[in-house]
């Protein structure tokens, strides 16, 4: 329609054309909006962001307590566990709960710079115990590599708890002037075990018996010798008739 024809239309007719034109523009705009909305709905938001891959396992800690450690590797295990940060991370990674214990020092030389409080390593302890992290890591290793397999073999069950007689305490080795490894949180005395099926296995009454429980105790005492520096039990002397003494204070003894 040219301008001459447009001017020739009466006002009512002109308004009619204007209204039809506006309606057509609105319809076109609405369609465009609806179309762009459907594109957006089919495209994930933040598609450019990296999404975590939950199928990929996190890297193991520097000291992986969950893997099998052979006896030949105990030197490497000891080296790693002596790093306080690595040791604590390793315990946490396998679900061992620990709390920081303030440094202790006594006049006669007992104490430690850092230690942890634990209520259990693989099995729970009868009492919450204070010890150095490397001792806790070594206990976890012993339970995994020696105690659990022996419990399965001789008793057909698992160990639910360890009867702890003592860990950190300032004292001298009986009959000597030397401070015990207990004085530094590097030793534990174990009086017995409780199985998951409710059996009580005290070292004192069971160690020398010809029973599955006695065989179990003798086997885990032997197995401790390769993992701890000093392992003492009822075969050593009367002082140890009722417990195993395990420590990581250096030297070597296996009785
Ligand atoms: Zn002891």
The chain-level mean pLDDT equals: 86
Q: Secondary-structure element sequence?
A: HHHHEEEEEHEEEHHEEE
**SS strand fraction:** 15-25%
As a whole number of angstroms, the C-alpha radius of gyration is 36 Å
Strand count: 11
Taking pLDDT < 50 over at least 5 consecutive residues as the criterion, the unreliable ranges are 28-41
Shape: globular
Distance between the termini: 115 Å
Polypeptide structure, described:
The chain has helices spanning 3-8, 11-42, 74-81, 84-93, 133-155, 203-206, 212-224; strands spanning 98-101, 104-105, 111-112, 115-120, 124-131, 159-166, 187-195, 200-202, 230-232, 244-247, 253-254. The protein is built from 7 helices and 11 strands. Mean pLDDT is 86; it is low at 28-41. The longest helix has 32 residues, at 11-42. The protein has 255 residues and is an alpha+beta fold. The chain folds into 2 domains: 3-42; 71-254, no CATH class. Strands 1, 4, 5, 6, 7, 8, 9, 10 and 11 form a 9-stranded mixed beta sheet that branches. The structure holds zinc ion (ZN). Zinc ion binds next to strand 7.
What's a concise summary of this model?
By secondary structure, this protein is α+β, with helices and mostly antiparallel strands.
Structural topology:
Blueprint: H1 3-8, H2 11-42, H3 74-81, H4 84-93, E1 98-101, E2 104-105, E3 111-112, E4 115-120, E5 124-131, H5 133-155, E6 159-166, E7 187-195, E8 200-202, H6 203-206, H7 212-224, E9 230-232, E10 244-247, E11 253-254
Zinc ion is lined by residues 182, 187, 189, 245.
